[in-house]
């Protein structure tokens, strides 16, 4: 490097050194070679848990270890068959657990991949977006406000750039960045202002840089080991269930000890009782619960991905089901973000524009007559501002053969727009009326840009033209009018008097009331030596030229999604930087604003105290002309009012509100890296309807978790109870240890998992949101578990006792009675599993709807029958074939718990319900 450091090199030296072209970037082949040579642009991660360790972890459980110990003893005592079978069952159990956990882990990893960052890079003269990890040294990268810097970049162009480098330098105030050469040699990182470092954040401006270091060679790579980037992946529910699991272990062990002691006191052999006790403990402890919860969460998350919602933080899945308010951006989320200018206002003249989409074909009409823009100097000025104060690029897309054949009506699809849709609409307007970017090239040279951001609500460029310099500005009409002292009226520049300003505001209002997005356009000639380094130096004393009004139709699916939210007790609030009238008009079209609802704008919001805002917040449905920092106030006010808030955002300044919201939502397409990193949910299609889909899935996942908790715990209560009651009554063991383990395996495994992917109940989105602090056992779940467990236990014991009565002292009859108890217990649980699908009873849902569950139940049944009827297995499982009478007994005893309670539930649902969770009347907005 001629002994020079990167920050000391000029453009040509950089190009030479890196063997790259700043105009065209690298070619793909060269990039591939460099990628092979230097490896991926990634910071190396910590070690993952290997599958073997994950498998061995399954045996870590204390009771499983005790059982293995007990089995070894029984093996030593000569009970080989028992020992081998128990070990085999434990291994199958471990494999099941392993598969569950492994799947859960892989889905979580896949999720991380999905939200991996991308980079805008120039390759072979074309701007493309590639995964950031594929960047190589010499790549030309474009970054803009809100982007995380994807590699160490030597900047070659910078417009009003600031970077936040606290991760690297500890300095939390953003520092200015430029593209000039710095002469000093030894500079601390914080002073290398022409280098943007990997992992830091561009908070303002736009820049272009060449990659000088990637991956572990970057400055961030050097300290990578010090940075901990793990996200909290355990959800509150998982945490609570873990706690519950610990309590249940103690309860199960306590009861088991009781069973063992009672058995021994009633004359059972001590060793047999010990083995039965340990088996019972293993069966009764819901060790599969955490894994199944993770699976249910992970599979739910996969379903959400299919519905275009990518979860970044698992806990938000639970919170989704509790959301009471969704605060949504307007542009692009509620609307299509496909803008077309349809109206122009030019110093009192109203002009309509024809044409659709991005195709630059259309005309201007004033009072029904076509306007000849070539001879209309004011109009040409407006079109020039629109074309030059603009970063969007209109180009002809390469069409596949099949599309080309489809005929002329598809022609508009041939045009492709890159960049901000608002700017795209202005490029198309200019091109339609004969002022294309190409026609201005060479005549105007851009010298400076003061980029758009949601705070400033405007953008300016300084261009040189025929020896002079001109400022072109466009932005929100009201903001721009405040910066203008002159106006172009009838082709002349005249003072912008309050009368003319009023006319202009009225024109903007009337466009906004017609749902149009309104932008003002202005310009100013700079004096020969006038300083123009900052936006305030450029954007003053401007000459107002006119207004453009563009349509941005609402997304079709959003109206229904908002209605669904209303039925689900969720309020939708629009928060937008756009004009209040435009916002209100669109809110009305979408059905956001109920009677009595209020719209406020940024100024009114600023004038309100927190107390006033709190009082009004529940009634405000539209916030217009707000800046991103207002969003944080809105979130806080709603939270103080007891709401669980979902908030969308896309820009850098939205990040604090996204972080503060209970569910922070970022836009996958238009969102900045900063907003995505702050979010817990990313919308792959930027669509409001996807938020509603995610909420529906979130509610479904929670209900599914409740379903299998209900199933697993009721089963366990039944298992413990049958043994406990038998021992207390001085009866022989109703189930031998292997049978207990087998029941645990066939019922807890597949059926419980199948419940985790069960379809939601139809009225899921007609219920009120679940309170955030709701106990998992709320809504009578605890009662359902205990009552059903008791019934299953009693019925199983009754079947055992009745069978035993035929010959109480016969060993043969005991084996038969144990087989009957075994079959009853398994069958009762397999019937109960269908019951768990409904918050009411088995009669309220089609039992065949969940195919996985039907398959799981059938396979469990086959396994049960196999154990009873395959001769080779009978001595192992201590079973005998049973006759017709016994089967009748089994069916009656196994069916009673579900059907008795089912009929009770049907009868009670027919009575008027006093305390329902359902919203009534459905569909009415809840204005408090
Ligand atoms: P939302 O917050 O719902 O996405 P929005 O897109 O209108 O709405 P902003 O992007 O903050 O919000 O824009 C605020 C205002 O700034 C717009 O109403 C428009 O008048 C103006 N504006 C938008 N884009 C540009 C741009 N590229 N250049 C200049 N002004 C713009």
UniProtKB/TrEMBL annotation:
Bilayer topology annotation: Multi-pass membrane protein
Spans traversing the lipid bilayer: 52-74, 80-99, 247-265, 271-299, 708-728, 740-760, 781-802, 814-831, 852-870, 890-909
Region (Disordered): 398-419
Keywords, ordered alphabetically: ATP-binding, Cell membrane, Ion transport, Magnesium, Membrane, Nucleotide-binding, Phosphoprotein, Translocase, Transmembrane, Transmembrane helix, Transport
Biased composition (Basic and acidic residues): 409-419
Keyword hit for Repeat: no
Start and end residues of each Cation-transporting P-type ATPase N-terminal domain: 5-79
Pfam families according to UniProt: Cation_ATPase, Cation_ATPase_C, Cation_ATPase_N, E1-E2_ATPase
SMART domains hit by this protein: Cation_ATPase_N (SM00831)
Subcellular location: Cell membrane
Family: Belongs to the cation transport ATPase (P-type) (TC 3.A.3) family. Type IIA subfamily.
Protein name: Calcium-translocating P-type ATPase, SERCA-type
Species: Paenibacillus thailandensis
């Amino acid at each position: 490097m001629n002994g020079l450091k990167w920050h000391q090199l000029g453009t040509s030296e950089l190009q030479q050194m890196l063997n790259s072209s700043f105009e065209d970037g690298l070619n793909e082949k060269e990039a591939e070679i460099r990628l092979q040579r230097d490896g991926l642009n990634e910071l190396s991660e910590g070690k993952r848990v290997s599958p073997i360790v994950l498998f061995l972890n399954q045996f870590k459980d204390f009771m499983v270890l005790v059982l293995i110990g007990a089995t070894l003893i029984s093996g030593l005592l000569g009970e080989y068959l028992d020992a081998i079978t128990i070990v085999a069952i434990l291994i199958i159990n471990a494999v099941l657990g392993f598969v569950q956990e492994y799947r859960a882990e892989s889905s979580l990893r896949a999720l991380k991949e999905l939200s991996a960052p991308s980079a805008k890079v120039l390759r072979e003269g074309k701007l493309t977006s590639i995964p950031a990890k594929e960047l190589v040294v010499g790549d030309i990268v474009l970054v803009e406000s809100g982007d995380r810097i994807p590699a160490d970049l030597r900047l070659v162009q910078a417009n009003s750039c600031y970077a936040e480098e606290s991760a690297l330098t500890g300095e939390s105030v953003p520092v200015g960045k430029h593209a000039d050469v710095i002469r000093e040699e030894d500079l601390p990182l914080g002073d290398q202002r022409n280098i943007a470092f990997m992992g830091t954040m561009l908070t303002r401006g736009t820049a272009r840089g060449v990659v000088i270091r990637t991956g572990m060679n970057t400055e961030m790579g050097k300290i990578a080991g010090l940075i901990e980037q793990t996200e909290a992946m355990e959800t509150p529910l998982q945490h609570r269930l873990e706690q519950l699991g610990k309590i249940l272990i103690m309860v199960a062990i306590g009861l088991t000890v009781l069973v063992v002691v009672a058995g021994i006191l009633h004359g059972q052999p001590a060793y047999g009782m010990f083995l039965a006790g340990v088996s019972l403990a293993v069966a009764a402890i819901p060790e599969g619960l955490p894994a199944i919860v993770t699976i249910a969460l992970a599979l739910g998350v996969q379903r959400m991905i299919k519905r275009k919602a990518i979860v970044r933080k698992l806990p938000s899945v639970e919170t989704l089901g509790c959301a009471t308010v969704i605060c949504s951006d307007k542009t692009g989320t509620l609307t299509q973000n496909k803008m077309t200018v349809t109206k122009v206002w030019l110093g009192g003249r109203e002009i309509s524009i024809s044409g659709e989409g991005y195709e630059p074909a259309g005309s201007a009409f004033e009072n029904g007559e076509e306007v000849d823009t070539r001879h209309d100097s004011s109009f040409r000025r407006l079109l020039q501002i629109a074309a030059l104060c603009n970063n969007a690029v209109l180009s002809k897309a390469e069409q596949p053969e099949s599309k080309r054949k489809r005929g002329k009506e598809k022609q508009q699809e041939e045009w492709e727009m890159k960049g901000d849709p608002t700017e795209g609409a202005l490029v198309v307007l200019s091109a339609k009326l004969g002022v294309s970017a190409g026609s201005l090239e060479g005549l105007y040279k851009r010298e400076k840009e003061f980029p758009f951001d949601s705070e400033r609500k405007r953008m300016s460029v300084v261009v040189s033209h025929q020896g002079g310099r001109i400022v072109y500005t466009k932005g929100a009409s009201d903001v721009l009018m405040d910066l203008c002292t002159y106006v172009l009226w009838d082709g002349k520049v005249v003072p912008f008097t309050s009368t003319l300003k009023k006319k202009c505001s009225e024109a903007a209002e009337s466009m906004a009331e017609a749902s149009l997005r309104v932008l003002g356009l202005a310009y100013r000639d700079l004096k020969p030596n006038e300083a123009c380094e900052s936006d305030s130096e450029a954007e003053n004393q401007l000459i107002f030229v006119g207004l453009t009004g563009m349509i941005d139709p609402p997304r079709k699916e959003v109206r229904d999604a908002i209605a669904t939210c209303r039925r689900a007790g969720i309020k939708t609030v629009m928060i937008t930087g756009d004009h209040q009238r435009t916002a209100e008009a669109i809110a009305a079209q979408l059905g956001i604003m109920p009677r009595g609802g209020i719209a406020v704008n940024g100024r009114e919001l600023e004038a309100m105290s927190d107390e006033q805002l709190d009082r009004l917040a529940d009634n405000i449905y539209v916030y217009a002309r707000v800046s991103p920092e207002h969003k944080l106030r809105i979130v806080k006010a709603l939270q103080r009012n007891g709401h669980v808030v979902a908030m969308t955002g896309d820009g850098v300044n939205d990040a604090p509100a996204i972080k503060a919201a209970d569910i922070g939502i970022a836009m996958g397409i238009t969102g900045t890296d900063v907003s995505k990193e702050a979010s817990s949910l990313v919308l792959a299609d930027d669509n409001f309807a996807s938020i509603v889909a995610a909420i529906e899935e979130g509610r479904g996942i929670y209900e599914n978790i409740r379903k299998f908790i209900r199933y697993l715990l009721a089963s366990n209560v039944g298992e413990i109870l049958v043994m406990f009651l038998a021992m207390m009554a001085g009866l022989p063991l109703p189930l031998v240890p292997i049978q207990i383990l087998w029941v645990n395996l066939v019922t807890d495994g597949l059926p419980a998992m199948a419940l985790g992917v069960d379809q939601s109940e139809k009225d899921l989105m007609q219920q009120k949101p679940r309170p955030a602090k709701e106990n998992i056992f709320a809504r009578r779940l605890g009662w359902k578990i205990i009552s059903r467990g008791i019934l299953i236990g009693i019925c199983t014991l009754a079947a055992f006792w009745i069978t035993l009565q035929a010959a109480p002292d016969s060993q043969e009859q005991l084996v038969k009675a144990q087989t009957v108890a075994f079959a009853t217990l398994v069958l009762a649980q397999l019937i109960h599993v269908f019951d768990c699908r409904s918050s009411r009873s088995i009669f309220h849902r089609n039992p065949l709807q969940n195919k996985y569950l039907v398959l799981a139940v059938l396979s469990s049944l086959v396994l049960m029958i196999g154990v009873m009827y395959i001769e080779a297995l009978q001595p192992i499982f201590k079973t005998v074939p049973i006759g017709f009478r016994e089967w009748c007994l089994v069916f009656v005893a196994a069916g009673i718990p579900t059907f008795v309670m089912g009929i009770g539930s049907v009868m009670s649902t027919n009575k008027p319900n006093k305390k329902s969770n359902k919203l009534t009347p459905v569909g009415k907005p809840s204005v408090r």
